[in-house]
Design a protein that fits this description.
- By secondary structure, this protein is of the alpha+beta class.
- The chain contains 13 helices and 16 strands.
- The relative contact order is 0.07.
- The protein is elongated, with a radius of gyration of 40 Å.
- Strand 5 (about 200-210) and strand 6 form a beta hairpin.
- It is a single-pass type II membrane protein.
- It comes from Eleusine coracana subsp. coracana.
- It holds the Pfam family Galactosyl_T.
Length: about 475
C-alpha cells in the first residue's frame, strides 16, 4: 500500500480552508450588525461638519431631513461613525449631556469675588491665580507681641538683645516648581508695628525664589500723631487746577515722605463723559476720592464731612486741613504753625471770623429759614483751615447718628460744629492772617484764588527760598 506524501501545497490549501471557515463564522456577526442598523429607520446622509458639532435630534420632538442615496443598492448606507456614536454613548454616556454637565461645573467653579481664612488658618489658596493688574486686600489683626532676638541690638550691647515684636506678616506664594524646595515668595510683606532693631515702625517688602532672598525694601513707618490729612475740594471738570496742585505743593518733602497726605474730594458731574474722564484720572493718579452725588454748591458741606471721615477712618490723622483746588499751601509752614499751637487742646486754626452776620441779599444771600440766628458762630474762612483729629471724630460720629446740623456754607458749618464740640471740651482757636482769604500776602501760609499759572510761579519762587506772591493771572 502506497504511503501519501504531504506536500507544501497541501498545507497552503489547509490554511485557506481554515480561513474560509473563520470568515463564515464571523459573517453572521456582520449580518447581525447590519440588520440592527437597518432597523433604526431610513438612513440619513450627513457630513461630519454638521453631525460632529450638533447633538443628535430626538425623533419625538424634532424632524430630520433625509436625502435619497444616488447608489443603485437597495440597502441604505449609514455613515461609519454612526455605530461608534452608539457604542461610545453606551460606555461613557451621551456626549452632549456630558458637555452640558461640564459647562455647569465650569460655571459653578467661576473665580470667587472673595476668599477668607477662618480661625487660625495660615494659608488660603487663590483658585484663579492673579492676572496683570490684580489686587489683593488683606484685613487682619496683629497678634500679641513676642520676644525676638536681634543681633544688631546685641552688638550694640543694648540689654539682652531681645525686643518685643508685633507684626502682621503676609506672603503671596507661587506654586512649588521643584520637589524639596519651598514655593517661591512672590511678595513678602512684613509690617512691624514695634520692636524693629532700628527702634522705629517699619514696613518691609521682599521676594524669595529658590531659597534666595532678594534685597529687602524697607520704609519707616510714621507714628499716627505725625500724620496730617489735607483734603482738597475740587470740581469734577477742574483737571487743570488739580494738575497744578500735583506739580507744585504736592511735591513738598512732607507729602512725598507721607508725613502728610493730600487727596482731592470730587463729586460727580451731570455730564457722563466728564465722569468717565474723572474715573480714568482717579485710576491713574490714585489721589482722588469720588463722592456719590452731583456737584452743587449746596452740597459742598458733604465734601467737608467726607474729608473728616477719610482722615479718621483711613489715616487716623492727628490733624486735618481742608482747602480748595485754587489754594496754594506751604505745607511746611502749616505743620510748624500746628506744632507751635499744640497746647494739648483740640485745635481749630485758620483765618477766623468773629460776630459775622448772614447776608440777606445778593449772591451769598441766606434766608431766615436757612439761618434764623442773627450772627454766625466763630468760623475760619473756607479756602484753608485746620482741625484736630478729635474734632473730626466728633463730626463723623454726629453725622453717623444723624444729629449733625448741616448748612450750605461749609466753613460756617464747621464753625457751628466746633462750637458744639467746644461746649463739652475746650477748643483752642488759633487765628492767622497768613491763611489768606483773598489772594496772597508775603510770607503766606496759604494763598487763595491762584490760577494754575500762578501756582507754578509760586512754586518756582518757593523752591528758591522766597515765599512771595505772583500777582498775575
Amino acid at each position: 500500500m502506497a504511503r501519501r506524501v504531504v506536500r507544501p501545497s497541501h498545507l497552503v490549501l489547509a490554511a485557506g480552508l481554515a480561513y474560509l471557515l473563520l470568515i463564515s463564522l464571523k459573517f453572521r456577526r456582520v449580518l447581525d450588525l447590519a440588520t440592527a442598523d437597518l432597523d433604526d429607520g431610513p438612513a440619513a446622509f450627513s457630513s461630519p461638519s454638521s453631525s460632529d458639532h450638533f447633538p443628535p435630534s430626538n425623533s419625538s420632538s424634532s424632524t430630520s431631513t433625509t436625502t435619497t442615496p444616488t447608489s443603485s443598492t437597495t440597502f441604505p448606507v449609514h455613515p461609519f461613525w454612526h455605530r461608534y456614536d452608539r457604542e461610545a454613548a453606551s460606555f461613557a454616556g451621551d456626549p452632549w449631556e456630558l458637555a452640558a454637565a461640564h459647562a455647569t461645573r465650569a460655571a459653578a467653579a467661576a473665580c470667587p469675588s472673595a476668599v477668607s481664612v477662618r480661625a487660625r488658618g495660615r494659608v488660603v489658596f487663590l483658585p484663579c491665580g492673579l492676572a496683570a493688574g490684580s489686587s489683593v486686600t488683606v484685613v487682619g489683626t496683629p497678634r500679641a507681641a513676642h520676644q525676638e532676638y536681634v543681633p544688631q541690638l546685641a552688638r550694640m550691647r543694648q540689654g539682652d538683645g531681645t525686643v518685643l515684636v508685633s507684626q502682621f506678616m503676609v506672603e503671596l506664594q507661587g506654586l512649588r516648581a521643584v520637589d524639596g524646595e519651598d514655593p517661591p515668595r512672590i511678595l513678602h510683606l512684613n509690617p512691624r508695628l514695634r520692636g524693629d532693631w532700628s527702634q522705629h515702625p517699619i514696613v518691609e517688602h521682599n521676594t524669595c525664589y529658590r531659597m534666595q532672598w532678594g534685597a529687602a525694601q524697607r520704609c519707616d513707618g510714621s507714628p499716627p500723631e505725625d500724620h496730617e490729612d489735607k483734603g482738597i475740594l475740587s470740581a469734577s471738570n477742574h483737571f487743570a487746577e488739580r494738575m497744578a496742585v500735583r506739580k507744585t505743593w504736592m511735591q513738598t518733602p512732607e507729602i512725598k515722605s507721607s508725613r502728610a497726605v493730600a487727596r482731592f474730594f470730587v463729586a460727580l458731574n451731570s455730564r457722563k463723559e466728564v465722569n468717565v474722564m474723572l474715573k480714568k484720572e482717579a485710576e491713574y493718579f490714585g489721589d482722588i476720592v469720588i463722592l456719590p452725588f452731583i456737584d452743587r454748591y449746596e452740597l459742598v458741606v458733604l465734601k467737608t464731612i467726607a474729608i473728616c471721615e477719610y482722615g479718621v477712618q483711613n489715616l487716623t490723622a492727628a490733624n486735618i486741613m481742608k482747602c480748595d483746588d485754587d489754594t496754594f499751601v506751604r505745607v511746611d509752614m502749616v505743620l510748624k504753625h500746628i506744632k507751635l499751637n499744640n497746647g494739648g487742646k483740640p485745635l481749630y486754626m485758620g483765618n477766623l471770623n468773629l460776630l459775622h452776620r448772614p447776608l440777606r441779599t445778593g449772591k451769598w444771600a441766606v434766608t431766615e429759614e436757612e439761618w434764623p440766628e442773627d450772627i454766625y458762630p466763630p468760623y475760619a474762612n473756607g479756602p484753608g483751615y485746620v482741625i484736630s483729629g478729635d474734632i473730626a471724630k466728633f463730626i463723623v460720629s454726629q453725622h453717623a447718628n444723624q444729629s449733625l446740623r448741616l448748612f450750605k456754607m461749609e466753613d460756617v458749618s464747621m464753625g457751628l460744629w466746633v462750637e458744639k464740640f467746644n461746649s463739652t471740651k475746650p477748643v483752642q482757636y488759633s487765628h492767622s492772617w497768613k491763611f489768606c482769604q483773598y489772594g496772597c500776602l508775603e510770607n503766606y501760609y496759604t494763598a487763595h484764588y491762584q490760577s494754575p499759572r500762578q501756582m507754578l510761579c509760586l512754586w518756582d519762587k518757593l523752591i528758591h527760598g522766597r515765599a512771595s506772591c505772583c500777582n498775575y493771572r
